[in-house]
Amino acid sequence: MRRNTAFALVALPLLIAGCGTPQERCISRNTAEYRTVSRLLAEVEGNLARGYAWEERQVVRDRLTQCRDLYRDRKGNTQVTTRPCWRDYVDVERYRVPIDPAAETRKRDNLIARRAALAGRASASVAACREAFPERQG
């Protein structure tokens, strides 16, 4: 079961990358850094507005569930029984983290400058992708 889950996690981004038109894939590929910087900037601005940051941690908890046991009877037939059992589950908890407003402000200013530097290249890439992969309207 764990191998299937790991395979799905590895294959999912590849499947999603195959979706979309050639123009959309080109734009996505060439504006990834700009979008990342914009997302980080939004996060830092949210931290400054709230006065704290959010972080996540994984916590292992026990839950009572039903377990299935397989066994063979005297005739060799497979039988299934269920019983209550405890299983470990991983939950994700969000928690508040204090921030240094001066450091967050410097981070915000640097991200604004970085986004401005990337904006020209991103818009040129979008124009080039639209020219290279025109999409039919209608």
Short key terms for the protein model shown above:
138 residues; single chain; 30% strand; alpha+beta
Describe, in plain words, how this protein is organized in 3D.
The structure is a single chain. With 138 residues, this protein is an alpha+beta fold. The chain folds into 2 domains: 21-51 and 100-138; 54-98, no CATH class. The chain is built from 4 helices and 2 strands; from the N terminus they run αααββα. The chain has helices spanning 2-17, 22-30, 32-50, 101-132; strands at residues 52-72, 78-98. Strands 1-2 form a two-stranded antiparallel sheet. β1 (52-72) and β2 (78-98) form a beta hairpin. The protein is flat. The chain starts with a helix and ends in a 6-residue tail after the last helix.
Q: How many individual helices? A: 4
- What global shape is seen? flat
SS class = alpha+beta
Cα-atom Rg, whole angstroms?
25 Å
- The figure for the number of domains is 2
What percent of residues are in strands?
A: 25-35%
Trace the largest sheet across and list its strands. Answer: 1-2
Specify the biggest β-sheet: 2 strands, antiparallel
Separation, N- and C-terminal Cα atoms? 45 Å
Helix-strand string: HHHEEH
What integer is the average pLDDT? 88
- E-strand count: 2
Query: How much helicity do the residues have?
Result: 55-70%
List low-confidence stretches. none
